[in-house]
Design a protein that fits this description.
Layout: E1 2-6, H1 11-19, E2 25-29, H2 42-49, E3 53-56, H3 70-90, E4 95-100, H4 123-138, E5 142-147, E6 150-151, H5 158-168, E7 171-175, E8 179-180, E9 183-184, H6 185-201, E10 209-212, E11 219-220, H7 221-234, E12 241-245, H8 265-271, H9 278-292
Parallel strand pairs: 1-2, 1-3, 3-4, 4-5, 5-10, 6-9, 7-12
Antiparallel strand pairs: 8-11
The structure holds 1,4-dihydronicotinamide adenine dinucleotide (NAI).
1,4-dihydronicotinamide adenine dinucleotide binds near residues 59 and 147.
Keywords: NADP, Oxidoreductase
Cofactor: Mg(2+)
Protein name: dTDP-4-dehydrorhamnose reductase
């Protein structure tokens, strides 16, 4: 089976390439051949990859900058995602679209399930929600996977930022009043590869729909930071103490949901795959980053 993933160097794309198996060949398709902001490039680039399944992972992910670049964010995350799904449909293959916890406003008590009402707080979340709708309209054979708090050995992410800051200072201030599920992109890749094998044989595509897929267990950003830095120290890397601050003390252009918890129970029920516990997954990524000094 050939799986084409959009974006060459994104965290999820790089993780899929690493986790590709003998029975699943992963091909990354990205700029300049496939540019989500240039819809005319999308079909030809995907057709050339000859996929059995398309994973739509590339996105405009600069959450704060999106507040100033609404048109570009929507062009990439909404229209572009829709075109990727449409191209997959023309090629007769399913699409797996990555989406986000930021489609919710965070006002719920407890973990969000797929049927909860969406209410994005910012442009990025709104553009990804519009992308979900465009994908569902363009290709009935779709999985929309909402994930959250993604980190990996690749690209830019919170874990790498904490390790960099710990090498520079003794104390790091981190918000303690936003809760969620840290998710390793390597685990997202494993889940996608697992689901892809099932989708290939699911001709009626009964499994189509929206799913939440995030790490097991929950924490807040400062708890995440503490765990990452304790693991770093254990592996001989930098350490710093973490000071809890409130979201109000760390103003950002885009508002973030206070509660980003996602229940991944539906994905586990339908596909028989459960995310590893977030602490162990984070330790594994820190261990790699320290060992190879990435
Ligand atoms: N990083 C996170 O914490 C979260 C990410 N997600 C979603 O998961 C998916 C994967 O995220 P990551 O791998 O972390 O993203 P990333 O930011 O690491 O990578 C995004 C990729 O998209 C590519 N890209 C950007 N604009 C493009 C364009 N016009 N044409 C083609 N490629 C373009 C970039 O070059 C990059 O390779 C995205 O759809 C994102 O919205 C969802 C929840 C949280």
């Amino acid at each position: 089976m050939r799986l084409a993933v959009t974006g060459h160097e994104g965290q999820v794309a790089a993780s899929l390439i690493e986790r590709g198996r003998d029975d699943v060949e992963v091909v990354a398709v990205g700029r300049p051949a496939l540019d989500l902001a240039r819809p005319e490039t999308i079909f030809a680039a995907l057709e050339a990859a000859r996929p059995d399944i398309v994973v739509s992972a590339a996105a405009y992910t600069a959450v704060d900058q999106a507040e100033d670049e609404k048109d570009l964010a929507f062009a990439i995350n909404a229209a572009g995602a829709g075109k990727v799904a449409e191209a997959a449909a023309r090629l007769g293959v399913p699409v797996i679209q990555l989406s986000t916890d930021y489609v919710f406003d965070g006002s719920k008590d407890g973990a969000y399930v797929e049927t909860d009402a969406t209410a994005p707080l910012g442009v990025y979340g709104a553009s990804k929600l519009a992308g979900e709708e465009a994908v569902a309209a363009a290709n009935p054979r779709h999985l929309i996977l909402r994930t959250a708090w993604v980190y990996s050995p690749f690209g830019r992410n919170f874990v790498k930022t904490m390790l960099r800051l710990a090498a520079e200072r003794h104390e790091i201030s981190v918000v303690a009043d936003q809760w969620g599920n840290p998710t390793s992109a390597l685990d997202i890749a494993d889940a996608i590869l697992h689901a892809a094998a099932i989708l290939r044989d699911d001709k009626s595509f009964a499994a189509s729909g929206v799913y939440h897929l995030a790490g097991s267990g929950e924490t807040n950003w400062s708890g995440f930071a503490r765990h990452v830095l304790d693991a770093s120290r254990a592996f001989g890397g930098p350490h710093a103490s973490v000071r809890d601050i409130a979201t109000a003390d760390y103003p950002t252009k885009a508002k973030r949901p206070a509660n980003s918890r996602l229940s991944s129970a539906k994905f586990a029920d339908v596909f028989g795959w459960r995310s590893p516990e977030w602490r162990a997954a984070a330790e594994e990524v820190v261990r790699r980053l320290e060992r190879f000094k990435i």
